[in-house]
Amino acid sequence: MKIRVLAVAAAVIAASLLAGCAGEAAPRRTVVPTPDATSASTPDATSTPTLPASGPDTGAPTSAVSTTPVACTNGLATVAGAAGRYALSGDCAAVTIAGNDLSLQVDGSIGTMTLQGDRSHVTGGADVSTMVVEGQDNSLAIAKVDDLTIRGQRNSITSTTDLPRLQIAGTNNTVAAAGVGSAVVSGTGNTYPGS
To answer: What's the domain range around 141?
Structure first.
């Protein structure tokens, strides 16, 4: 009888010790933003791309949400952090948007725009030579993009003009443009003109 009680006690202790060792169902991704970043919201991609007149509808009055101006210094502009509204006007050689839940209104000519993070929104009348989107659930509505690379999931990109070059590595991304020149796409559920 003592052996049986000891066996049950040992099993209970072993189960208690192992309960804290259970793994998570999926790997967790952590994004650490770099200093300074920008972004703005965009509508879902449609077959006829249009740019929104204003930022995302947050349910709060627009006067209650302030927009922080972003300067392009020495050809570089960076917006980083979480949950902020920013605006960049004028030409800039390189724009980096790093963080989550950012909103950026951007106008002017941009050499390279890089978006790293999740749930950020970029809108405006910008003319972007090269755009790289890395992350999930981002939306961009930009007037013109010449070269677009998407690495991630569930991103929505809208351009009002033809998109000469498109590269997608990910799943369930949506690109709306007047047309696409060349496309290199890997992953499933991606939609773009001509797909």
So the answer is: 68-176
> CB-based contacts of 95: which residues, under 8 Å, 6+ apart?
38, 72, 76, 77, 78, 79, 88, 106, 110, 112, 113, 114
Residue 26 lies in a domain: no
Give the torsion through C-alpha atoms of 120, 191, 152, 51, to 10 deg: -20
Other CB atoms within 10 A of residue 182 CB = 10
The three-point CA angle 86-88-94 to 5° equals 115
The per-residue pLDDT for range 114-168, each reduced to its tens digit, is 999 999 999 999 999 999 999 999 999 999 999 999 999 999 999 999 999 999 9
160 token code pair: 């009002």
Biggest alpha carbon distance in the chain?
84
The phi and psi torsions of 51 (rounded to 5 degrees) equal -95, 140
Report if residue 4 sits inside a domain.
Answer: no
Q: How far is CA 143 from the centre of its chain?
A: 18
Integer Cα distance of 173 and 25 in angstroms? 24
Q: Is residue 104 part of a domain?
A: yes
Whether residue 116 is contained in a domain is answered as yes
In the chain, the amino acid numbered 96 is T
Handedness of CA 82, 171, 169, 113 (dihedral sign): negative
How many domains would you assign to the chain?
1
